[in-house]
Design a protein that fits this description.
Order of helices and strands: HHEHEEHEEEEEEEEEEHEEHEHEEHEEE
CATH class of the largest domain: Mainly Beta
Distance between the termini: 124 Å
CATH superfamily of the largest domain: Trypsin-like serine proteases
CATH architecture of the largest domain: Beta Barrel
Radius of gyration: 34 Å
Length: 379
């Protein structure tokens, strides 16, 4: 009896195994048939010309040489527009001398028009109506008059009576991006190092730094930070992008740190340059108030919180803002319905206006937003 049951159990197991094996073989057969059928129907026709685009991922030696040649030509063209500037006249024929930056206060400038307008720093040229001396690439020296300057921006425009000059192309400093390649050109020491070119990248934008001078403190705002080497004699020289466009005016260097230089954005000066180039003059409008970017406020009072706008730190007594009722501690968020978050945006807008024109500021005072109309006065 036991053997009969055992044989029956073995037969069931064998049958189960057989069923599983056949099922597996059937599955393998069907899968193989399907794959074979799919394979033989693959379209392996030769692609037509232009059907697929291939992109090169490497640069040939020739291309690299051509690119280097283009950069070299660009820098040479800009360098021809770079000048040496001195507040003192040298007894010789040129301000480019050994130890020139020490003996003559040598600095740098850039020609911005064919009829002799030159852009530089105020501390290089001196203030408005002053006289300074300019040496061109050909070694000729000319007397220049300071026609405009701003001590807060440390920028000035000077004029020499020469025509037919090469001049730089101005770029757009609002489009500058961190990591962008740049070149700085200037006269760091004297004759031996005139028109020195250094390269680097944009390290940061919209930087604010504190300046300590003669026991007084001030802030320079919205600066372009670069690691391109900038020495004292480079002041007033151009900071250019890879297209050869001037995006900044080299202005400040932190002497306690290596590889940190700053340039004022070129856009702030454009309205003034355009006015001089078109009319030969610039009638400067004044709003009569001092403002700081929100990034500066923590240095002044860390209890003040600003999300948007610029902060009014002081008012010129009797000025346009004072007459209109603007108060210290007000926050300006718009000018003529244009959002404003930087001091340079306000300055650039005012520079585009004339004395007597009316503007409207959106002002926040103690949490209340109000429009304030201001008639600009003459500076």
């Amino acid at each position: 009896m036991y053997n009969r049951k055992k044989r029956k159990s073995d037969m069931k197991k064998n049958l189960s195994v057989a069923v599983v094996t056949m099922s597996f073989l059937f599955f393998i057969t069907m899968t193989g048939f399907y794959l074979f059928n799919w394979y033989i129907n693959i379209d392996i026709s030769t692609p037509q010309a232009g059907q697929y685009d291939a992109k090169k991922t490497s640069v040939t030696l020739k291309e690299a040489q051509e690119e280097n040649k283009t950069v070299t030509q660009m820098i040479q063209e800009v360098s021809s527009c770079v000048v040496g500037i001195s507040k003192l006249r040298d007894n010789g024929s040129s301000v480019f001398l050994k130890d020139g930056s020490t003996k003559l206060g040598l600095g740098t400038g850039m020609i911005v028009s064919e009829n002799g307008y030159i852009l530089t720093n105020e501390h290089v040229s001196g203030s408005k109506y002053n006289t300074c001396y300019v040496t061109l690439e050909n070694g000729k020296t000319y007397t220049a008059n300071v026609v405009w300057s701003d001590s807060d921006l440390d920028l000035s425009i000077i004029k020499i009576n020469v025509i037919g000059l090469p001049y730089v192309k101005l770029g757009d400093s609002e489009t500058v991006e961190v990591g962008e390649m740049v070149y700085a050109i200037g006269n760091p020491i004297g004759f031996e190092f005139q028109r020195t070119v250094t390269s680097g990248i944009i390290s940061a934008v919209n930087r604010t730094i504190k300046i300590e001078e003669e026991e007084k403190s001030s802030y320079m705002e919205d600066l372009i930070q670069t690691d391109a080497t900038i020495n004292p004699g480079n002041s007033g020289g151009p900071l250019i992008n890879v297209k050869g466009e001037v995006i900044g005016i080299n202005s400040v260097k932190i002497t306690t740190a290596e590889g940190i230089g700053f340039a004022s954005p070129v856009n702030i000066i454009k309205p003034i340059l355009e006015s001089y180039q078109k009319t030969g003059e610039f009638e400067e409008a004044s709003i009569g108030m001092y403002v700081y970017d929100k990034e500066v406020i923590p240095y002044i009072d860390n209890t003040i919180k600003i999300d948007n706008g610029i902060y009014v730190i002081d008012i010129v007594t009797g000025g346009a803002a004072d007459i209109a009722g603007i108060k210290p501690n007000d926050i300006v968020t718009k000018i003529d319905n244009k959002l404003i978050n930087k001091m340079t945006e306000l300055r650039s807008y005012i520079y585009s206006k004339k004395p007597g024109e009316e503007i409207t500021l959106q002002v926040v005072r103690r949490g209340i937003t109000m429009p304030v109309k201001i008639v600009l006065t003459k500076k």
